[in-house]
Specification:
Blueprint lengths: L4 E3 L4 E6 L5 E6 L1 H11 L4 E3 L7 H12 L3 E2 L10 E7 L5 E6 L10 H9 L6 E5 L8 H13 L3 E5 L10 H11 L5 E5 H6 L7 H10 L5 E5 L5 E5 L4 E6 L11 H16 L12 H19 L9 H9 L3 E5 L6
Parallel strand pairs: 1-4, 1-8, 2-6, 4-5, 8-9, 9-10, 10-11
Antiparallel strand pairs: 2-3, 6-7, 11-12, 12-13, 13-14
Length: 332
């Protein structure tokens, strides 16, 4: 076993509201979805946080193990599983309310996260984000992230903001920006940039401003139906998008699958932590975006977050349905 990626953050149950008003429990959480999506794309992945001994916790563990994920904390803990109540609008976009006090995935600390990573000598990439970006959990994740970057790991952070559950939005924004200082690669959506209060007339302008405020080498910007962009510290911009509309069922987990496709392609290309600091090969950058978009595109055509396999992603890329190139992809 050669662990390639370690993930740290929430694993929870999404209580998804059906049209008849009933709620359906589904395995979820952004980092949990990312972890499964990586494993399904044949990446040896280590999930660092503990899981509950309650029924939901056992189901979360079973879901990870079934996909081939390795658990750093295989023994369950007494804390309960976190819940997210999810309502999906007519366009398939989810809205979340979280229950996060005294829950299992928060029952950890920086020392345990670090020790688990040290026990994986082949580890190349660490990923976190989403609810792990809460200021209340700074003591858990910031020392761990600092140590991982100092040790030469590629640090990937998903700036997946949840402002509706953070009572002090200015404090939350400031903490997210502080956490992003440890990132080599940032994944962010146009909505996240608005929530961060980034200045700029367009999402690309906002992403450039974010890149100027941190030390990351690469930002992957998702823009919904408009596709995605990859921005590098060397001031290169790449874009990709589906060439035809998709039959979208819902967008639950789409960003998580996007990031899994991106990280998988990074590992396959053997990219170093400083990739993006200097001029990059355009075909490599486009391949990263194509893999990321293909992974997300397959997800949105399924109910809930059902990550694709590596074979499915490669087949989607090979179909030629994703248009990509250099530049912003904005109408001229």
């Amino acid at each position: 076993m050669q662990i390639q990626v370690a993930t740290a953050g929430e694993a929870l149950i999404d209580m998804i509201r059906n049209p008849d008003g009933r709620y359906e429990p589904c395995l979820g959480g952004a980092v949990y979805n990312l972890t499964r999506a990586l494993a399904r794309q044949s990446i040896e992945t280590l999930y660092l946080n503990p899981l509950s001994r309650d029924r939901f916790g056992r189901q979360l563990a079973e879901g990870l193990l079934a996909d081939g994920v390795h658990l750093a904390r295989p023994e369950p803990v007494v804390e309960v599983t976190s819940l997210a109540v999810v309502s999906v609008d007519d366009a398939g976009h989810p809205d979340y309310a979280f229950y996060r006090e005294g829950v299992a995935d928060r029952a950890t600390d920086a020392v345990r996260l670090t020790q688990a990573c040290e026990a994986a000598p082949a580890l190349q990439v660490v990923c976190t984000g989403a609810l792990a970006l809460s200021p209340d959990d700074a003591g858990i994740y910031l020392p761990w992230l600092a140590g991982q970057r100092d040790s030469g790991k590629v640090v990937v952070i998903d700036a997946n903001l949840r402002p509706s559950v953070m009572p002090d939005l200015p404090r939350y924004r400031a903490h997210v920006l502080n956490t992003l200082q440890y990132a080599d690669v940032i994944k962010v959506s146009d909505e996240d940039l608005d929530n961060l209060g980034m200045a700029g007339a367009t999402a690309l302008d906002q992403a450039r401003n974010l890149l100027g405020q941190c030390d990351a080498r690469v930002i992957a910007l998702t823009r919904g139906g408009a596709g995605a962009n990859l921005l590098t510290r060397a001031d290169a911009v790449f874009h990709a998008r589906e060439s035809a509309p998709l039959a979208v069922v819902d967008t639950v987990g789409a960003g998580d699958c996007f990031l899994a496709g991106l990280v998988t392609a990074m590992l396959e290309a053997g990219l170093a932590a400083d990739w993006g600091s200097a001029e990059v090969n355009a075909s490599v950058a486009q391949r990263l975006l194509q893999n990321a978009i293909a992974s997300a595109s397959i997800c949105v055509q399924r109910r809930g977050c059902v990550p694709p396999s590596r074979q499915e992603v490669l087949a989607h890329v090979a179909s030629g349905r994703i248009a990509s190139g250099t530049g912003t992809g904005e109408p001229q």
